[in-house]
Amino acid sequence: MRLKIPTLIAVFVAFYFLSHSAGWLNRPDKNLDATIFLNHIVNEFSGASFFIFLFDTLITYLVFYLLYPNKGILITVSLYLLIGIPVMIGLRFVIEEIILFQITGHHNYNMKHLTLKYYVFDNIYFTMYYNFVALSFFGVQYERFKKLKEKELKFQARNAELSFLKSQINPHFLFNNLNNIYTLVYQQSTNALPAISKLSDLLRYMLYQKEDFVPLTREIEYLNNFIDLQLLRYDYIPEISVNIQTDIDASTKIIPLSLIPFVENAFKHGDLKDAQNPLTIKLEVKQDLLVFKVDNQKNGNRKDATGGIGLENIKKRLELLNPAKYDLIINETTNHFYIELKMVING
User: Which CATH number belongs to the domain containing residue 285 in this structure?
Assistant: First the structure.
């Protein structure tokens, strides 16, 4: 939070002007002649009281600015009441009733009012009246500062959580695919080297993209590479139907790595030998809505002892980056698994 002394001075001048001009204009014995009014305002702003109350306003603002954020309301208000107000009353008395009296020969207060009790109580009123400007100004500034700080903290927490979630993706992805490549190498399959090349390309994409959103065309390229990598590890022709729209605007963007967990899950748990129920992957864009579907039969013999890191991960990332702009449907039975993701991708 920054000091805003010039702005506070401008606010105080406006407040002082309204206070003194309104009171003067409402007096029935005053002529509304513009020249008289102007002279009245000039006298008010050139008097010692204006500068004393302005100085008091600035000091009060500084007291709250320096103390309140660290010391809290109790200590700040106590110091203001026990030290700030008495000092300002004493300062006004010394300037107006001693120094200026020696120069001009005139007291600011009528002599009959120059008693300790009257002077103190009268100036407590004036001090509190003008300090209202400082306190209101600081209150508004501090509330705005707190809201911005809370927003910044939420933003930092969101980024920290996203970074953590992204860090989970790579080990999870690498763990599964290294196992697949290990099997290909062990079997001395001719698909081993192409699989390593595909994995290298995929890891490059995962490691070096840092944006919250990437072109959908780029994500689709990653998705196709992943599917090709998965197909290399089978010793039979998998039953799979892939229908991915290709005529997509290059400016269309999506959350990176948001489609792969669903496809990865289907390959890990799906039965790809059933020609009547093939693994189906479909992606299409309708105006500003992306519709992504994955449908597969489940293979009851394939269990994932590490748990569903990928699906839970993408759910959290969707909530953080695209709240209220997506709809995820997951239907799972003993033998079947289906997901449908609808996501607003523009606007």
Answer: 3.30.565.10
Q: Are residues 133 and 280 in the same domain?
A: no
Q: Are residues 104 and 200 in the same domain?
A: no
Q: Other C-beta atoms within 10 Å of 86: how many?
A: 14
Q: Rounded to two decimals, what is the model's pTM?
A: 0.52
Which tokens belong to 75?
């200590």
240 and 325 belong to one structural domain: yes
CA distance 232 to 194: 8
Shared domain check, 315 and 195: yes
Q: C-alpha 194: how far from its chain's center?
A: 44
Over residues 239-280, the pLDDT tens digits come to: 999 999 988 888 888 888 788 888 888 888 888 988 888 999
Tens of pLDDT, residue by residue over 183-240, are 888 888 888 888 888 888 877 776 666 677 888 998 898 889 888 888 877 778 889 9
